Each structure stands twice: as C-alpha cells, then as structure tokens.
Amino acid sequence: MKELIRSAAKLASVAADPFFGSFPGPRILIYHQIGAGLGRQMEVTRKAFAEQLDWLVGHGSVVTLDEAIAQRGRAGDERRFVLTFDDGYDDFYTFGYPELVKRNLPFTLYLTTHPVETRKPLTPGGKAEPLTWGQVEAMYASGMMTVAAHTHRHLDLRTLGRDAAEEDLAACDELIEQRLGLRPAHFAYPWGYWSDLADEPVRRRYATATLGSGPGITEASDVHLLHRVPIQLSDTSLFFKRKMRSGMRLEDVMRRKLKGYAGP
Predict the structure, then answer these.
(1) What percent of the chain is helix, strand and coil (3-state, nearest 5)?
(2) In sequence order, which ranges of the chain are alpha helices (DSSP H)?
(3) What fold does the segment set 23-236 form as a domain?
(4) Taking a C-beta distance cutoff of 8 angstroms, is the pair 136, 111 a contact?
(5) What's the confidence (pLDDT) of residue 123?
(6) Which of 186, 187, 127 has its CA nearest to residue 154?
(7) Quick check: 105 and 61 in contact, CB under 8 A?
(8) 211's torsion region: left (phi>0), alpha (psi -120 to 50) or beta?
C-alpha cells in the first residue's frame, strides 16, 4: 500500500510540473547510499545508479559544484549536472565510487565527521557503516572529489542554539583539515533544513550551502540557499528523467507539508 501511494504521488508530481513553470539552472543531485539493500528511500540500487550516470553523461555534462555555480544563468545550464553524496557511507566507496571512476566523473562528498572518526554509524543495525578516513583520502587523492562539510554529528541545526551550531560546524571543519589538510569550502544542511541561527556562521565559513529540494537555480540565487534534487529508491527511469528535466516539484511541496518545514 505504501508503495502504491508513493507511486501515485510521483505520478501526480509528473502531471503537476507544467503548472510550476520552467525549472532553470544546474541540477545538483543528492545521493546517500548505493546498493545498501535496506529498502530506504535515501538509497538507490547499483543497477539504477549506473544507468542514471549513463543517462546524465548522454544528456549533458557532469561538472564540479564550483563550475556549476560559476556558470549558473548561462545558456544550457539545465544540462549541467552535479553529483553530490551525503553523510559518507562505505557502500558508496564500494559500489558508487568505482562507477564514477569508470566514467571519470567529478563529485562532491558532504561528509559528516563523527561517524568516520568514531566508527559509529549514523544508522545503527548494519548496512550503513561509515567511510574510513583511508577511503576518504583515497577518493580525494583521485582528484575527482570535492570534500565538503555536513556537520560533525548530523543534527538538525534548527534544534541547536547559535553557539552549539558553531561548535558542531567547527568540529567538522577541523577534523577534515586535520585528516586531509584542506578546509572545506562548501556545506550541506543536515536533512536539507535551513536554520536561521546557523545561517550566519554557515555564510561566514563556507562559499556555498545547499538545502533539500526546491526551486531551480538561477544567476540571482543565493549561493548559501541552493536547492538540490533528491534521488530516491522509488525513482524509476521515468521519474529520474522527469526530475532531471522538470523537477517533479510537487514532491517538494508534499514533503514540506508532511515534515512541517517552512524554510527556504
């Protein structure tokens, strides 16, 4: 029943896209786990991931986050795709990273540092083990990966005061700098939820910040409030292609209502 409801909602989103108008700008895709087998919407199968990469390569250019932001508003930027991966799961290194290497595709890893440092997974129970620092270093050494910040503990920043948010951001930045010798220039809000209290420290620390799904990206877009396109387990080939072309933005409207999120 849940799958039928989800499919019906996606079909409604496809039908509603024309009413939302154009969907401009580069598509910044959100991935989490690859081939984990947990059945959660935040993962995709290995087969689907490979097919999605091939579609992106065949229908546009996979570019770095920096390149996409620098070229936003230019002709054809709706055919520029940015691959981003959140949290840092070892199945991404095992199953996703080899597919990126095979196609020589740049990508951004928004890394949550506490699981990597402590070896305690964000999701207990198996099949969601964190990356090791050795794996992160290997991907960074390839020259394909942009390392970005995703907080230390992956807490909803709306629930923290400004000082606590600043402390968590600092812990993430400092660990990345200690382990990799670089200071992250990009950031993703956990759960995709913007926080007014964290906004100032985020702007001060990072060149860009990304949220969850939402409007397309234009030349006038605030680079600290950039929306991405979540890729889900239930995204068939049809839904994936429609997300890339027109956004399926009714999904975002429904998600916001269900989650009670009223932010940007």
Answers:
(1) 50, 15, 35
(2) 2-16, 46-59, 65-70, 90-91, 97-103, 113-118, 133-141, 162-180, 196-205, 237-246, 250-259
(3) TIM Barrel (3.20.20)
(4) yes
(5) 85
(6) 187
(7) no
(8) beta
**Interior CA angle at 28 toward 183 and 109, to 5°?**
35
DSSP 131: P
User: Which residue in this structure is represented by tokens 């002709």?
Assistant: 75
What the block records as the tokens of 33 is 């786990």
**pLDDT score at 198:** 97
**Tokens 């199945």 -> residue:** 91
- How do the pLDDT tens digits run along the chain, 264 residues long? 778 888 888 999 999 999 999 999 999 999 999 999 999 999 999 999 999 999 999 999 999 999 999 999 899 999 999 999 999 999 999 999 999 999 999 999 999 999 999 999 988 878 999 999 999 999 999 999 999 999 999 999 999 999 999 999 999 999 999 999 999 999 999 999 999 999 999 999 999 999 999 999 999 999 999 999 999 999 999 999 999 999 999 999 999 998 999 999
Residues 111, 175 contacting (CB under 8 angstroms): no
Helix (H) or strand (E) holding 34: strand 33-34
Extents of the domains making up the chain: 23-236
Burial of 202 (0-12, 13-18, 19+ CB in 10 A): buried
What burial class does residue 162 get, using C-beta atoms within 10 Å of its C-beta: 0-12 exposed, 13-18 middle, 19+ buried?
middle
